[in-house]
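REQUEST FORM: STRUCTURE PREDICTION
Request ID: SP-0412
Submitted by: Lab K.M.
Chain count: 1
Length (residues): 753
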Amino acid sequence: MNIIEFELPAFGRMAASKLRETPQVSDIINSLSQPIIALDRRLHVTAINKAFHEAFFLWTGVRLYLGMNYLEVLPKEVVPERLTFYRRAFSGEGFSLEQDYNLAGEIHTFLVTYDPIYSGGEVIGIIGSAKDITEQKLIEKSLREANLKFENSFRFNSVGMALIEPTGQFLKANATLCKMLGYSEEEMKTKSFPMITHPEDLEKSFDIFQRLVKGELEWAHIEKRYLHKSGKVIQAILSSSFVREEDGTPLYFISVVQDISERKRAEDELLNSERRVVNMMKVAPVGIYQTDVERDCIYVNDRWCELTGLSSQEVTGNSWIKSVYQEDVRDVEQELKRCQESKDVFSLEYRLRKSTGEITWVHGREIPLRDEKGALVGYMGAIQDISKIKEAEKVRERLIYILDATPDIVGIFDIHGKSIYLNEAAREVLGLDADDLDVGQTSWEMYPTWAEELIRNQGIPAASRDGFWKGETSIIHHDGREIPLSQIILAHKNKDGVVEYFSTIGRDMSRQKEFMAELARSNTELEQFAYVASHDLQEPLRMIVSYLQFLDLEYREQLSPEADEYLHFAVNGAKRMSRLIKDLLTYSKVGRSEFKTKSVDCGAILDVVQEQLRTMIQQAEGLVEVGPLPTVNADESQLMRLFQNLMENAIKYRGKISPKVKVSAHQQSGKWVFCVSDNGRGFEMKDVNRIFRLFQRLHDREEYPGSGIGLAIAKSIVERHGGKIWAESKVNEGSNFYFTLSDCMAAEKELVR
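STATUS: Completed
RESULT:
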């Protein structure tokens, strides 16, 4: 194809012939790397060079040819904007603007120019050209970011920083330096470095600055003293460099000042602390010892002698292991060897035996001592009497055995709500193994929000005041269900009346609550249906929708843009209300319609559902994978609605990639467990209970239209079949929706009725 060609409409024939009179023009334009296109007043392509042709194909995947209507091949979403640009050019205006294009997955920024084409004083077409300025924009962005990084590093650095003129005058000082010296930045600009330097350090400061200016030093690091505005002395380390232009012209000093006043005071304190440590070791409540590299004792304190029954004279020059109970010696020696090889800290519980035969449980810790070069010079250790703790542990083990045997939920938590203990019944409800309990994790994660607020606002205050509180709460089962509890909270106080921790006992009230909850739910659903889906609401709404659509169809072109927009909002709102009523009717029919069960092939049901959703799946470029599915006893129409709702959700709430939906089933404990999984947007597990409630939405309606009833319908269908439904999800990692159906639905049908 000859890229530079011209269509010759009657009004543009003269201009085109002039271009053809110069053959070099076609070759020149076609050889330009800058994309160029020309359109006539009908927006047909009259000229296009190779660069534009290639760029347009990368952008849209469409190849342009002469005579094509450019408006028809543009992506629909950009047409309104481009029409605005074309009108400006056809009015005689030439202009340029920046626009971003996605070319084969890469975003490019172009400076796009639109110019009118004249013939005989009349605009017969427009010519557009584009210059790729992506690299230029990236360079500009990098420069801005570099400047911003330097400015932020200077302003917010944790050490003092300053820019100083070659004369010694301050040009700029950051907040840290100003705070260090007690001046504002404006005050600092009136100072020179000699004015804030300690008089005794002026000479060495001048010497360093002169050597930096002469180029004898690239960087200088000195310890010096500064004078605070209040007059106090600041000990600091100064690091400074002299900055020049490329031609050697001096600019300024960059100085970094680190306050080491505290370190200096710490060094002085260290000398005193060493003396205090020696005195503290003498009176410490734990036994302390120090050995050489062979672990022969060179020091023991009085408490160590009390615990071992040995005097300092008896143990000095001998190994402390001689004081260990004979049955524990092997364990101690093995642990010491392991720690020496792995460089871990020795920490072990073992027994000591005095010459009197008395046995004492201790917890021993030992660390290696090294000199400044890292060479091992000995060990320092300590032992603590834990005999009473060991006795308490035995009592605790007996109590835990009793608590684990009770069917009630028992827990202990501190005053901040952190778990200390959960019995076996509680761990079973939460899906925790004995080793899974993270002591210290928050207890509030076990409760739904409403129960947490009740316990925080009423239970804890009442128990703290009166010693106990009793109320009705619930706990979240590991499968997502809420289990209603009759709960008691006890406050355990010390002798001063201060609460040290709380304990709680909860009894499962599911069976007692089941009948009342079912009755309340039925009444609520019936009231919602009677109120929303009544004849008086449907008929006026149908009339509103019909007349609004008639107005939109008949008078759209006659209305102002604002009126047209208002009408559009009204039509959409009426349609949403109509859909809401229909969905409510569908929801109410699940519990009110005749329930007929028969043998249903779930695989055949999925074939029908996929056919019904074919358009939706194709538009989303989705993929549905169906594994082997069983035949179950169920209401066929309701089961079809269940699969349809779950698959619609999986496709609708997709992420940036094409949706992939997988339907599978497996047997478990006499039931079929179905799973509908997807790779979509997902949600946070804290919202798992909300999604199955009426009108509960996790996403914006404009992004994902709908009434928020689909999953409530799914839940109602599953529960009517005697099953349960739950979900697992992670944000941006997809969701898994599970539901169960029994192998013996005939018997459960009678139970549900």
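NOTES: Residues 74 and 85 are 14 Å apart (CA to CA).
Reviewed by: T.R.
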